[in-house]
Design brief:
By secondary structure, this protein is mainly β. The chain has 1 helix and 7 strands, in the order αβββββββ. The strands form 2 sheets. It has a 5-stranded mixed β-sheet, with no helix packed on it. β4 and β5 form a beta hairpin. The longest helix is centred in the first third of the chain and has 13 residues.
Length: 133
């Protein structure tokens, strides 16, 4: 039998994770990287500032939606393709590490995975789900 969680438990778990992004003194961020793991991060190619008040709204049915995310209008870029992303709190501590691809991944990039120096990188929407039903 699979473990299942009530909606209240899923909401609590999701909120606990995304609320960690609001810890610290700076601005939470979404950082696109060429590689890496949560313990050994790859090179950052674009850094997008998240909402400075609350990075995510409250969870509904186990999913929280990010508030505004600013574009990086002058990305550092790299010849290597983006492969991972991190969501970091106000003190640049990684809270979430995930995969990036053109489709079927944690985060999908629609205009290709290579970010050149000076490119603009934006995020049209972002959700986080801590647990499934």
């Amino acid at each position: 039998m699979a473990v299942t969680h009530s909606t209240a438990a899923r909401n609590a778990a999701t909120n606990a994770v995304v609320d960690l992004l609001d810890v610290g003194t700076g601005t939470p961020s979404l950082v696109f990287r060429t590689s890496g793991t949560i313990g050994e991060l790859g090179d950052a190619v674009a850094t997008l500032a998240m909402d400075g008040t609350n990075a995510f709204g409250d969870s509904s049915n186990g999913t929280a939606t990010a508030a505004s995310i600013a574009s990086d209008t002058n990305a550092a870029g790299s010849a290597e393709a983006v492969a991972t992303a991190t969501l970091e709190d106000r003190d640049d501590t990684v809270v979430i590490h995930c995969a990036v691809a053109e489709s079927g991944s944690d985060i999908n990039m629609t205009n290709g995975l290579t970010v050149a120096n000076g490119d603009t990188v934006s995020c049209s929407s972002l959700t986080y789900t801590a647990l499934t039903a």
